[in-house]
Amino acid sequence: MAGSKMPRAEWSIVSKAPFVVPPLKEQEAIVKIVLLATAEHAMEVSYKELMLQQKFALMQQLLTGKRRVKLESAV
Predict the structure, then answer these.
(1) Where are the domains of the chain?
(2) Rounded to two decimals, what is the model's pTM?
(3) Residue 71 and residue 39: Cα distance in Å, rounded?
(4) Could you tell me if 61 and 67 are in contact, meaning their C-beta atoms sit under 8 angstroms apart?
(5) Spatial distance between the Cα atoms of 67 and 60, rounded to a whole number of angstroms
(6) Among 14, 42, 54, 58, which one has the highest count of C-beta atoms within 10 angstroms of its own C-beta?
(7) Digits of tens for pLDDT over the chain (75 positions)?
(8) CA 52 – CA 66 distance, rounded (Å)
C-alpha cells in the first residue's frame, strides 16, 4: 500500500494467491524434526551454561590458590 513506511500487500491480492500445503503426514514429520532440533538446541545451551559456570568456578579456585596445576617437567 502506498504511504506506509513498511510495504504491505492488499488482501484482495493475497487472498487470490495459491499456497501449496504439504500433506498432513509430511507436516507431522516436519514437526517431529523441528521439535527434535529444538530439544537438542536447548540441551546444548544448557550444557554450555554449565561449562561456563564450571570454568568460572575453576578460575576462581586457581586465582585464589585453592587449586594448583601441576605441570609435568619437560624431559
Answers:
(1) 22-63
(2) 0.60
(3) 40
(4) yes
(5) 9
(6) 58
(7) 455 567 788 889 889 999 999 999 999 999 999 999 999 999 999 999 999 999 999 999 999 999 988 888 765
(8) 19
